[in-house]
Amino acid sequence: MDETLRQLGELLLGAVPTVILLALLCWLYTAIVHKPLGLVLQQRRNKTEGAIEKSRADIAAAEARTAEYEQRLREARATVFRAQEARRKAALEARTAAVNSARANAQTQVEAAKGEIQKETDAAQRGLQAEAQSLAIEIMRRVLQPTGVAR
Q1: Alpha-carbon distance 70 to 62, whole Å?
Q2: Which residues of 63-83 are buried (b: 16+ CB within 10 A; e: fewer)?
Q3: Considering the entire predicted model, what is its pTM?
């Protein structure tokens, strides 16, 4: 058993440089590869997340500008519609005024024509009465006039 313990002691003594080299290798790996690689990965993650956040902010800004554009477009359409309605209303009022004016002129002309017709009717009746009187006188004179044949 002494022999086994001695061999085990030699084995452990021979393993010490390997353990030291392994510990040194772990430390070098951590210092040279692992930490810089972790930093690079962290920077990449930050840049990626930053780009995603920036793109989300850009999308939100674009949506806000789109909403503002659509609002201004609706307002412009409403303004145009109101202007068209105002022009339509003004044209309708002008047409109504023109129709009323034409109606008034026509009514005035009708009244004037009625007056002329009444004057002409009155003049014709006076002329007919005068003619009727002269014809009546003429008829009476002929009827009452002694005829030269009977005497």
Answers
A1: 12
A2: eeeeeeeeeeeeeeeeeeeee
A3: 0.44
Q: Tell me the pLDDT of the chain (151 aa) as tens digits.
A: 888 988 888 888 888 888 999 999 999 999 999 999 999 988 888 888 888 988 999 999 999 999 999 999 999 999 999 999 999 999 999 999 999 999 999 999 999 999 999 999 999 999 999 999 998 898 888 888 876 655 4
Q: Tell me, what amino acid is at 125?
A: Q
Distance CA 138, CA 130 (A): 12
The closest alpha carbon to 4, from 12, 151, 49, belongs to: 12
DSSP label at 147? Answer: P
The token pair that represents 87 in the structure block: 């022009």
Q: What span, in angstroms and rounded, lies between the C-alpha atoms of 120 and 82? A: 56
Both tokens assigned to 54: 């920036």
26-60: buried (b, 16+ CB within 10 Å) or exposed (e) per residue? eeeeeeeeeeeeeeeeeeeeeeeeeeeeeeeeeee
Q: Which amino acid is at 114?
A: K
